[in-house]
Every structure is written in C-alpha cells, then in structure tokens.
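Quick start: read one record
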Amino acid sequence: MRGSLLGRRTATRLRQVAISAVKSAKIKLLLCCCVLFAFFATRTTPFMGWADHAASLNSFSGSRLYYRRGYALLINTWKRNDLLKQSISHYTSCRGLDSIRIVWSEPNPPSDNLVKLLSQVVQSNSRDGRQIELKFDIHEEDSLNNRFKELKDLKTDAVLSIDDDIIFPCSTVEFAFSVWRTAPNAVVGWVPRMHWIEKLNHAIFQRGLPLMCLEWLQVANVYACSVMDTFMQNGNAGRYIYGGWWSVWWTGTYSMVLSKAAFFHKKYLSLYTNEMPASIREYVAKNRNCEDIAMSFLVANATGAPPIWVKGKIFEIGSTGISSLGGHIERRSECVNVFVAEYGRMPLVSTSLKAVDSRNIWFW
C-alpha cells in the first residue's frame, strides 16, 4: 500500500517535471523563432514587398539620398558678423544641409577675412564627407525683399529661411524637414501668427460670446463660420487685425508661419520676385516691414491651404527686434489690410494643426 502510494507520487512528480520541461522548451523554441523571423525579415525585405518602405525610411536616416535631397540654408543678416558666424557654425553640423546662402544687403561687400573665416567654419564642421557650398548673395539695394530674391542656381528644392539670431537644435531642424517633405507646397516652421476680422469680433461680442470663440468655432466649422458668411455677405467685410503669439496661444489656431524660421519650396522665391504684385514689393521696401506676411499671402494664394506649425525650442541669441517696438501690431495689421486689397480677397487659411515629434514627449 505504502509502496503503491509512493509510486503514484513519484509518477506525478515525473509528469510535472516533464510538463515543465516541455513548456520551457516551447518557450525557448518560440523565442528562437521570433529571433530567426526578425533576422530573416531584415534580410528579405525586397522579397516581401517592403523595399520601397525601407528606402523611404533610409532617406531620413543620413543616407546619401538624404543628402542629395537636402536643403539650402537661406540666412538673412545685417551687420552682426558674430551672430552670423555662430549660426553658420551650428547649422553646418546638421544633417541634410546642402548649401548656405547669405543674404547680404550691407553698403560694403563682405570682407575677405569674413569670407575666409566662414569658409573655414563650414569646412571644419562638415561631416560624413559632405561638401557644403557657401555663397554670399550681394545686393546693391538695402531692401527686405532681398531675402526672397530668386536664386536660380539652388540645387535643392527645400529652402530653410532663418534670421541670423535664431538657433534650433539639429534634431528639431531635421524633424521639421521631414514634415516639409510630406507637404512640400506648404510653409513649415516654428513661428505661427494669425489674423482677425475686427467687425466680426465686435458682432460676436454683441451676441454674448467671448472674443476668442471666433477662431475655435471657425476651426470646428460650427456657429462662427455661418456668422462669418452672413456677415461678409451683408457687406461688413471689416478690417483685419494681425494676431501675435498670444493670440495663437490663446486660441490654438494660426494662419501664418513666419519666414524668419521656416522651410518652403524654392519656387516661391521665383513667384515672390516675378509673379507677386509689384505694389506689394514696393510697399515692403518703403515700409521696411512685412516681407514675411507677403510670403504667407503668396503661398496661401497659390495653394489655398494653411501652413504647418512645428513644435520646437527656439534660442534667440541676438537682441530684441522690431516686434518689441511700440505700434508693432498696428503696423502689421496695416500690412495685412493692404495685401488683402491687392489680392482682392483674404487668401490666408486658418488651421489648428501642429506637428509634434512624438519621440520626445511622454503623452501624445
């Protein structure tokens, strides 16, 4: 009796050990299969129909194709050689940079020492065997229109327009470039702005709605859009108001991305120089303001689509600009209304879209 009981216990333990061994073997076999599948998947992509997808991914990872389809840095400067050197030293270390074009509108041409110094900076910071071209585009006339003069010898479609006192991390630039490549007809950048309709704002106020509801409801295509249609049909076009950063922050909408920090297609340089109404270029030259708004109008009129705002940290290494002076909003609002009159309509399109690199945030 005792022996048979002991035998049954031993048999039970042996079965448990065998079952455990089988489970362990199955798990190991499954892990081996996963490893083998992953190995062969990376080796057999051309046979599994993934070749094109892999190529598109490689185009963003520093391959030669990426460099061939890189971008030109169009940098605007004015008597700040130290900032110019600092900016060029930084951006030459970013992947994808193909050439640097310096918009030079100063009375005197750049000195030989400056050209030599910047050439050394570019050469010392160039990586992966790249040959980054450096060229000064010298203009006899001091005009803000110079930053958008047509450049017929650009080798790339993409242009990164930057002021000499603005620095972005290379990772931020590369992400924005990848966004632009998905929408090459759009202006893609980091400085959003918007426009208001003054009379419509007052009309909304009289109905008991808060001022900022206009943009929220306009984006959602709800009440304010029908109000706008009715308001415009009644001949109450109203005056447009330029909205700064706090308007964008409050409403979450924008209709412009300023060219002080933005990607756009090189074809817009030709359109700005040759196709945009000459009266707008004359206005910009005379008032020394609003060339960036003029470019926003130009692109919106050509595409009928909004720009794309990219989230990114901006480091301003220079002193404050004209936006910090009194009357800035009033002058910019006047530009908007003058350009609307020239085009015969408001081409700007509002949006709430924002491109965010999900790899750098916890929640998205």
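The chain is about 50% helix and 15% strand.
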